[in-house]
C-alpha cells in the first residue's frame, strides 16, 4: 500500500520539461502582447497628429470662407486670386486691403497690403503661409450665366469661388465653395 501512495504523489507534480515549455509559451505571449501594445500606441499617436493637422486645415478653410465672403473686386486665374477686402479680426487691422491667395510651391500663401488707389501704391506687402505640403491647387469662378470659368477679369463679380487643394500627407481638403457678398460689391462702388 505504501508503494501506491508514493506513486500517486510523484505523478501529481510537473516535470522540469513541462515547466520549461510553459515558461517559454508564456514568454512568447508576453512578447506578442508587448509588440501589440507598442503598435497600438504608435497608431494612436499618429491618428492624434493627423487629427490636429486636419483641424488646422478646417481653420484655414473657415478663415478663407469669411475673408472671401466679405470681399469684392475679384481678379484671378486658376492658380491665384486677388481681391479687396477687410483682413481677419486676428490681424487687428482696420480698413480695406488688397489681398492675394495663391500657391507658392507646396504652400498656400495669403498676401496683403493696404488698399490705396493714389500715388502711394508701392506699399510693403505682408505674407502668411496658410498651409504646407500641397500637391495640387486650383481656383474656379462661377459667373452667371456663363457657368464655371478658370479666370475672372479685374472687378469681376463671381457668384461663387471654388478652391480645391490636395495634400501629400493624407490630409483631406474638401472643395471650398464661397459666395462673395453681392451687397458689399454694390455698396463699395456707389
How does this structure look, described?
38% of the residues lie in helices and 33% in strands. It has one domain. By secondary structure, it is an alpha+beta fold. It has a six-stranded antiparallel sheet. Strands 7-6-9-10 form a four-stranded antiparallel sheet, covered by helices on one side. The protein has helices spanning 2-11, 16-69, 182-189, and strands spanning 72-76, 80-85, 97-104, 107-114, 126-132, 134-143, 147-149, 152-156, 160-167, 176-178.
Count of beta strands? 10
The share of residues in helices is 25-40%
Instruction: Report, as a whole number of angstroms, the end-to-end distance.
Output: 119 Å
Task: Indicate how many domains the architecture comprises.
Answer: 1
The number of helical runs is 3
Query: Any low-confidence stretches, pLDDT <50, length ≥5?
Result: 184-190
**Order of strands in the sheet with the most strands?**
5-4-3-2-1-8
**Looking at the structure, what is the overall shape?**
elongated
Summarize the structure.
Helices cover 38% and strands 33% of the residues. It has 190 residues and is α+β, with helices and mostly antiparallel strands.
Keywords:
190 residues; alpha+beta; six-stranded antiparallel β-sheet; four-stranded antiparallel β-sheet; 38% helix
Describe the protein's topology.
Blueprint: H1 2-11, H2 16-69, E1 72-76, E2 80-85, E3 97-104, E4 107-114, E5 126-132, E6 134-143, E7 147-149, E8 152-156, E9 160-167, E10 176-178, H3 182-189
Antiparallel strand pairs: 1-2, 1-8, 2-3, 3-4, 4-5, 6-7, 6-9, 9-10
Amino acid at each position: 500500500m505504501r508503494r501506491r501512495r508514493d506513486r500517486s504523489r510523484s505523478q501529481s507534480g510537473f516535470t522540469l520539461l513541462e515547466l520549461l515549455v510553459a515558461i517559454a509559451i508564456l514568454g512568447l505571449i508576453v512578447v506578442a502582447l508587448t509588440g501589440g501594445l507598442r503598435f497600438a500606441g504608435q497608431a494612436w499617436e499618429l491618428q492624434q497628429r493627423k487629427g490636429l493637422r486636419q483641424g488646422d486645415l478646417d481653420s484655414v478653410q473657415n478663415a478663407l470662407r469669411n475673408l472671401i465672403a466679405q470681399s469684392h473686386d475679384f481678379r484671378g486665374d486658376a492658380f491665384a486670386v486677388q481681391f479687396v477686402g477687410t483682413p481677419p479680426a486676428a490681424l487687428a487691422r482696420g480698413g480695406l486691403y488688397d489681398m492675394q491667395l495663391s500657391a507658392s510651391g507646396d504652400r498656400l500663401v495669403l498676401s496683403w497690403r493696404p488698399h490705396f488707389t493714389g500715388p502711394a501704391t508701392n506699399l510693403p506687402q505682408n505674407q502668411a503661409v496658410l498651409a504646407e505640403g500641397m500637391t495640387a491647387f486650383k481656383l474656379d469662378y462661377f459667373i452667371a450665366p456663363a457657368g464655371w470659368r478658370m479666370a475672372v477679369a479685374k472687378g469681376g463679380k463671381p457668384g461663387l469661388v471654388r478652391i480645391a487643394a490636395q495634400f501629400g500627407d493624407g490630409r483631406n481638403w474638401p472643395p471650398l465653395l464661397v459666395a462673395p457678398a453681392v451687397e458689399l460689391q454694390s455698396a463699395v462702388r456707389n
